[in-house]
Amino acid sequence: MKKTISILAAMGLCASAMLGSVMTANAEEEQVYRIGICQLAEHVALDQAYEGFVDGLAEAGYVDGENIVIDYQNAQGDQSNCPTIATKLVNDQCDLILAIATPAAQACANATEEIPILVTAVTDPAESGLVADNQAPGANISGTSDLTPVREQLELMMQLLPDTESIAILYCSSEMNSQIQAELAMEAAEELGIETMEATVSSSNEIQQVVQNLIGKVDAIYAPTDNMIAAGMQTVSLVANPAGLPIICGEEGMVENGGLATNGINYYNLGKQTAAMAVQILTGEADTATMPIEYLEDVDTVINAATVEELGIEVPEELQQYVVDFEAEAAAE
Q1: Which CATH number describes the domain made up of 32-146+266-295?
Q2: Which of 1, 6, 53, 105 could share a disulfide with 119, CB 3.0–4.6 Å?
Q3: Do the bridges between strand 300-304 and strand 261-264 make them parallel or antiparallel, or are there none, so unpaired?
Q4: Mean pLDDT, the chain, integer
Q5: Which pLDDT does position 327 carry in this prediction?
Q6: Is 71:37 a contact under the CB 8 Å cutoff?
Q7: 150-264+299-332: what fold?
Q8: Angle at Cα 198 formed by Cα 192 and Cα 203, nearest 5°?
């Protein structure tokens, strides 16, 4: 009798263990991560970063509506909306937050020191006060930088516009990332023997007037990866191009909306690179405190065919391969 009881007890323990294992496995299979996204504005570069992030997660097996839930929030270009969005994402107890652009990243950083935050489309996270050091962030924030090759962009300008002697650097005065790029542009321009002047705006309503004031004062405009200018690029080009004032841009989306050319990073690829970092965090393979800020090494040279024609520019033979007919591409789609 005792032997029978012992056998039954052992069987019961085994069954309990097996049931526990099944329940644990099911729990792991059913785990759904909540990912909050705070995007500063709606324009090509930031939209591509978001799309690349979502696609990168999906390729790694993290699909929205299946094993992750993405809460996407867009501040529509109004920085004052970012803290509200950040607070919402924290209150909703997201497992990870993606902040797209510097003001969005700063708002999320102020909202939590606990939830892992990845940033993207941020020029210099350390200079912007987001991390202690770009190589060793030290806390709950890491991500990818969209630092552009400013000097190479100005060198491209000189290839296309060899007679350029002066440029205006057009950017929003309240964007830290733009201030950093403006300083880099002034340093590079000085080395290239180009005179510079700053043309800043504080709101999108000022863009048209500021650009009009540049006509006849400079030979070209340099517009870095500034969110306000990127969102208002059609306004910039509609004023500058008819006046024969070429615009060298920080990224392809700005070129597509009327700029002349860029040597810029691919924001879709930047988003995918950020997604790879997110997967490492979700799986516990990495921690933001020790994840260095990552950069894209490759850049794309893009020249707008329609703008070339409007400005009457002769593109050198070695750059012909980079001329893009955006209108034809749009029609083909």
Answers
A1: 3.40.50.2300
A2: 105
A3: antiparallel
A4: 92
A5: 84
A6: yes
A7: Rossmann fold (3.40.50)
A8: 140
